[in-house]
Amino acid sequence: MLKRIGRIIAFFVTGxxxxxxxxxxxxxxxxxxxxxxxxxxxxxGAGIHKAWEPLSDISDNLIRAAMAAEDGKFCTHDGFDxxxxxxxxxxxxxxxxxxxxxxxxxQTAKNLFLWPDRSWPRKGLEVYFTLLIELAxxxxxxxxxxxxxxxxxxxxxxxxxxxxxxxKTPAAALSAPEAARLAAVLPNPRRWSASHPSAYIIAxxxxxxxxxxxxxxxxxxxCGWPExxxxxxx
Length: 234
Fold this sequence. Notes:
Helix content: 40-55%
Order of helices and strands: HHEHHHHHEEHHH
Strand content: under 5%
Largest sheet: 3 strands, mixed
Radius of gyration: 18 Å
């Protein structure tokens, strides 16, 4: 009986690793059709509205705004901001709330492969997938998938859908203030709106806008080229 249970567990564990490696390799070149988060939101009645655009067709302003808001060390870390994680842990030990300390790489892993949750098992899987994508993808691809798959409003996924929904403009034409307002809602896009911003979002967008010129990037955005043997972008 125990051997049978062990074989079943081994089968599922092996299947999980094969499935995860397959998806990571596939998503290096192929846009995902749907993510677990999208399916959960669809079940809740939000719908799925998305449109894929290559990073070259997304405004540089939005790339800078996302880094200014979410991950200023994106180009230099290995997927994890260890100082922020340490600060978050110490805050939690003192009784404070975990803020997440999530990098863009970690958020991409969560958005593509996982579900919204703050449990330790889910966080452990997030670490696992973050390691995989940092090993398999260049930073440019991570940013491309992040901006195309992140939720910007209930049922609105990706920079192009967000730009059209909030500002009636293509993602390529987003101005710096518009990009800052989009980035400002990323922590909770189901609560806050870029097109109907609260006083808090206006203030947060102003801070992000001010930070954008100082984000450490290299051309072509976000981190220069070449990366990991891939051909340069058009």
